[in-house]
Amino acid sequence: MDKKPRIVFMGTPAFAVASLSALLDAKMNVVGVVTAPDKPGGRGMQLQQSAVKQFALAHDLPLLQPEKLKSPAFFEALSAWQPDLQVVVAFRMLPEKIWSFPPMGTLNVHGSLLPQYRGAAPINWAIMNGEKETGVTTFQLQHAIDTGDILLQDRIAISENMTAGELHDKMMIVGANLLIKTLDGLINGSIQSVPQIENAADANSIKHAPKIFTKDCEINWDLPVQQIHNHIRGLAPFPGAITKVDGKIVKLFSTTISLESVKETAGSFITDGKSIAKFACKDGYIVLNDIQWEGKKRMQVSDFLRGYRLS
Question: How many whole angstroms separate alpha carbon 178 and alpha carbon 153?
């Protein structure tokens, strides 16, 4: 291909903005942006624009916000941009009519090393499962979610105390860079897509990344301390791991592990009332750096203990 393709970008949250910004920095031919409709939120439930919409407006990019992706009006407007290629980063599931119609198809940036962690929450589940490594994959969309042919991958190490939020921020940049590398390869013909090989044995080893629900956030204090630590950091800062203390719902975000001998029942909350707060596990303690008490803001443990007295 001698010239840069006409690209339509589809995305919604801040994670996607880094990739859209990288496209502009690389002088790619972005002819339009598709993002979610404005939604009420915040104080007064005022209509909120997505991060991608805000960026698109600031850079005078043509914009579509379809309520329904199967709407004939949306397809007509999208077709008018005459895209050669669509790029999807953190967006909704597309109907086949949408992802298949550009001549070069639709490229997706996914936050895992596919075929591992297909699904809506790959960043969270990789940390919750105690992985030491994850990455980003660019691939071509097809019928089943996250199963298309792989274009490129880049690996990211997960450190011992890294939270989902920290991994998100790192992956956002790695993903944007990988997107540009992928597009350069497609344009100059140096990339060959590779099918996601999945035989019966492979299928049994694949870990999935479904959407996070409230039940997934509840801490099971009967698990080993390392698993609990992974669970907490994999849900930080959002939606947050939850437990109960004195009948109140408490969210935990930043923790460390102490492997000292445990005398208390697993799940017991222990504090010196000054600067130390921790939960007993069967093989160690979860030591809290911060906490969010029901009805209160997230705060450092020392600040929390100065203002609260537990029964």
Answer: 7
What is the domain range of residue 284?
A: 214-307
With residues binned 3-state (H G I as helix, E B as strand, rest as coil), the percentages for the chain, rounded to 5, are: 30, 25, 40
Q: Tell me, what amino acid is at 161?
A: N
Q: What is the dihedral of CA 112, 162, 90, 191, to 10 degrees?
A: -40
pLDDT tens for 114-137 read 999 999 999 999 999 999 999 999
Q: What is the pLDDT, as a whole number, of residue 60?
A: 98
In a domain, 156, yes or no: yes
pLDDT tens track for 163-194? 999 999 999 999 999 999 999 999 999 999 99
On whether residue 284 sits in a domain, the answer given is yes
pLDDT value for 27: 97
Sequence-distant (6+) residues with CB within 8 A of 26 are 180, 183, 184
Q: What is the dihedral of CA 57, 58, 62, 64, to 10 degrees?
A: -30
